[in-house]
Amino acid sequence: MRTSTTMIAVVAVSALFLSACSSGSADASGDAGSAFGECEVTGEAGSITLDPVADGTLTVATNLPSPAWWKGISPEEITGGYEYCMAATIAHRAGLESVTVKNVSFDGLVAGQVKDFDIALAQVSITEERDKVVDFSEPYYSSKIGVLTQADSGVTPENIADRQLGVQVGTTAVDFVPETVAPKQEARTFQDTEGMITAVQSGQIDAALQDTAIVLGFAQQSGGALEVVGQYDSGEEYGAIYPQGAANSGELDKAISAMHDDGTFDALSAAWLAEAFGTDPNTIPEF
Description:
Elements: H1 5-12, H2 14-17, E1 22-27, E2 35-36, E3 39-40, E4 57-62, H3 82-93, E5 98-103, H4 106-110, E6 119-120, E7 135-150, E8 165-168, H5 173-181, E9 188-190, H6 193-202, E10 207-211, H7 212-221, E11 226-242, H8 249-261, H9 264-277
Domain Solute-binding protein family 3/N-terminal: 57-276
InterPro entries: Solute-binding_3/MltF_N
Protein name: Amino acid ABC transporter substrate-binding protein (PAAT family)
């Protein structure tokens, strides 16, 4: 799922992080509230019991880059972000020593083709179709579909159907755009988010439609070159993915439920999303 100089740097090194098998790990510390990368993990160590796919570490699948959700562009560089710190907190509560990050294909992840992971956190919207091939946790974040354009593009609710739009393969926008936006010309599809973002920046497409919580991060990093001009209320919610029938799902659900109850998710939003987005997503006008 898914910068100016930042975006160019991301694209230039894309070959380094697009490999579906790349991975890296970071050491966890032992006490609640202590640093885990740049995270502050919370809760009681050992409050859940997991049987991880690799001894001593929580293996987490995701799709990089993903500003605000994962700080860093390759598994070895990840030091923070909403979902990384969510994973770090789960690892801590399971008494594990580290998190191992696997950078995988988003399309393959939601199709149930990725193997050898404990949990996947990649801003994945829960849908009935996906639920047939993967198991979802309870929701941990609500999102809408944002419209990312060049600054001063003039894209409005009235003319967006006349513009060339872009969507990423495997995302809910693939069906949402033709069914709800109904553009006059077929939306272009992209295999990855960074390719789609680059297409907006270069003028190959007029707008990219992707989760507001994702495109805001790219807009914030673009130095004013890109902006999110609006969003659609799609009723989407993000859930963690577990391998179908995974023995750990009950304990992972227990951790996620506890993180709702104890305010961990509110703290993660305040720490990682508000600053990275540069704006409150709720202030983006609805199309």
